[in-house]
Each structure stands twice: as structure tokens, then as C-alpha cells.
Design brief:
alpha/beta, Rossmann fold, 3-stranded antiparallel β-sheet
Amino acid sequence: MDGVLRIPAVNLTETDALIADALNGLTASSKSLSPKWLYDHHGSALFEQITQLPEYYPTRTEAGILHDNAAALSGLVPANGALVELGSGASVKTRTLLNAGRHFGAYVPIDISRDFLLETAGDLRTRYPRLSIVPVVADFSAPVALPRELATTPKVGFFPGSTIGNLAPDRAQALLEGVRAWGGIGAFIVGMDMVKDTSALVAAYDDAQGVTAQFIRNILVRLNREAQANFNIDAFKYRASWNPALARIDMQLVSSHEQVVTLAGQAITFEAQEAIHVSAARKYTPDSLRNLALSAGWDVAARHTDASDRFSVAVLTPVHRP
């Protein structure tokens, strides 16, 4: 591997996909927008700010677990093998494994935000000059094609940040099945937030500084910029709430009054207090974690946690069926 940057061609229909997805969600009986559109360059930067907030315990808790178990986790990657990360963002936590995994042959960060990914890849090349950094611009919620030169390379998947909690159960299962199908896959390291006190959960997604609210509202800013929409951003209030039946935090934008918004030439009517569901953050128990893994052909080989079992870094290994 020569470390040469290989980026797939930018999808020229991304704007069309954004418009079609938004129109589909906003004209449904219960309005919604896909959280994947939150992560343009500005949204990705806002999310990195969220990870530093005092209320947002998942990042620092997971970072502590990764630090304490860095040798065991990096040891899952064979010599000259690859660590492949879904939704890599700024790859901050990943550096714990890269620092411990001096035997790695390649690191493959996968992210939907092209500019942010390229900036991060450039920084990582400076930090790890002997490591092949092979960024891939892709939406991990769909099947991801890895670079050909890594098709049969022994590899370990990495999906930190409890991002799997943002996926509906069927989408989470599909993602696990997709990673299970990669050639040479030996393990999948997945960060999962656990069910806990409701007040701590809600505070983590509704911070006092309002950064999370700005992050969620950024999807409307993006629609205005890229989809010919005319949202009045201030007319939508952010709301985070715990849904006990589905074991998840729901993040919504609520219309403060009756209004009509135009998007790509189509009028969309909002009633007062009507909500747009933008994102969900599911929380797990040991049993629900194991059930999800087994449904997609994985077993839970290990579950690393903090002292209070607030967060888990699970090591999944493929179930080899006869």
C-alpha cells in the first residue's frame, strides 16, 4: 500500500438525493428528515463541539474505555491489517488505537462529509507518516465498497460514538450484516450507549449552551442553501425527549406557529407545534446488544465498560455457520 489518496468521484446527484429525501420525509403524515444530512462541513464541526460539552458524557466515557483497553482492541488487527472506521469524523478517538497499533498497515476512515474527511486525512498523514491512510467518501447507512487493494486484507471494523444508536433496528442490523460481508473481516468494535437515568440522557442531548440545538437546526440551514428552501430557522424550536417504549432519545424541530415553507418549488404546510423528527439515539442493554449482534451474524466476544456501566465498547466476532 502506497498511501496515495484514493477518493471515489463525488456523487453529482447528492443535491437531488437531498431534495428527494427531504420532500419524502416532510410530506409524510409524520414529518421527518434523515440525520445523515446533518453532516455537511459545518454540521460535522458542530458535532465535534458537542463531544466536548460537559453534559455529553458518551465521548469522554468511551475515550476512557478505549484508553484503558487500547492494547487489547488494537491487538485485534493482524500485522499489516487495516482498521476501517465508519463515520470517522475527526478521527479523534481513533488515534488511541492508531497509537497503540503500530503494526497496522492501513487506516480507512469512511465519512459522508468529503471536505471534512479530506482535512482529517491530511492531518493523519502528518501524524502517522508510516501508516497508509485511505479515506473513502461514502454514506455508511448504505453498503460501502472498500478500495480494491484492501478487498482481501485482514481487517477490523470500528464504529465508535454510539452512532449505531442513531439507526432504526432494521438499519442497524443491515449495517452489521454489511460489515460482516467484508472480505477478511475478523472483528467489529462498536461503541454503544447504555440505558440509564433519564435526566442524564436528556441533558446529554439538550445542552445548556445550545450547541446540540444549533447542530440539529443546521439541517434546515442546509436545505435553505442547497435545496431552494425558505425555512425561517428561528421559527423551529429544538426538543429532545426520552422515549421509554423504544429506549431512545428523540430529537425534533417543532414549528412554533402555523406556517408554509417552500422546498424545491413545493409548498409544505406546518401546523403550530408540529414536529419534524430529525434524529434518534437508541440506548442498549446487554441483552438488546447481544440480540442485535446475533441477528446479523455476530457474537459478542467482549464488552468493555466504564465502572458505572454507562457505556460499552463491544467486540463483535463473526459467527461461523456450518
